[in-house]
Give the backbone structure.
Amino acid sequence: MKDPVVHEALRQIQDIVAGEFARPISTQARALIEKVLQSAFGQLAGPAGRDSGLTREVTILLADLRGFTAISAAHPPGTVLELLNRCFVTMSEVIFRHHGTIDKFMGDSILVLFEEGRGEGVRDAVSCAVDMQCAMEALNAVNRTQGLPDLFFGIGINSGRVMSALLGSDLYSEYTVIGDEVNLAARIESFSLRGQVLISESTWDLCKDFIQAGEPMDVFMKGRSNLMVLREVLGIPSLGRTVPRQEFRRSPRVQVKLPFNYRMVMGEVVVPEERMGMILDIGYHGALAEIALAPAPFSELVIDLDLPLVGQQLRDLGGKVVNVHQRDHSVRIGVEFSHMSPEQRAAIQLFVQLLIQGAETG
């Protein structure tokens, strides 16, 4: 993990050197300076520094690659590493251009901090997020010409007070940020779709006159009693920036194995015969299901479904078959929920949100 204080100091040194000598320092010189700074800050912190910590106001940006596990399974390791490195190099350039500090890379995720001391941290953060999504679109265009798969980031942003401290021992230690606001940024990111930027209410309050945002959406967050309000960043009008839309889905979806019963609708009559199937993934507005007999496209269903996590039994949920895929021994259908009560809608949303945040279905 990289020390954010060292990174910011190193960035300032690079700017000074480039200004004096009209060219940036070399990679080798950068590494040597970074080691010196790491040692110096570590000695200044000392044992007391590890215990005391420092609270500060920041805006936290967490970006995570969508579907990267599937890409890793489908391509050779060399291709996967090339994709990941190319992506992170591009994103790092965008982040540093917006005065962000990379706190750490976590597998296929990036945690970035923007200091609020200058009063511009939140604007830097949302501008950075929008430019990251634009940069991903340009990077994907290059990847396609080389036969490489597209990559997509989901991004969550939150503003608040965090604790930064040197944690560890004399054998190994590192600066990091901790606190509820960091956890909340991670929760927000988990709700984001491909190419989407979601922000918390605290971030919205600081930048609502700067960004164009979608309608507020209520979500359940683990560990909080009240629903939280998130907004999608659509663009930054003053900068002429728009987030390129990458996801046709209207909500997050989660993989499940939920048995259900259904009856076909013929005309306006519900056929009494009850059939069984298995829901394989579900979102706020529909599901992917596996059944035995292929229905006609756009036919209507009446569905009975139990949601164990939220203790709800959904009865007479209306659905429309929007696509049909015949397999060797079964049929997979895409179902759009066409008729549901407000209570059913709320139950499905809560169920999906719990699964997104890691709850187990048992």
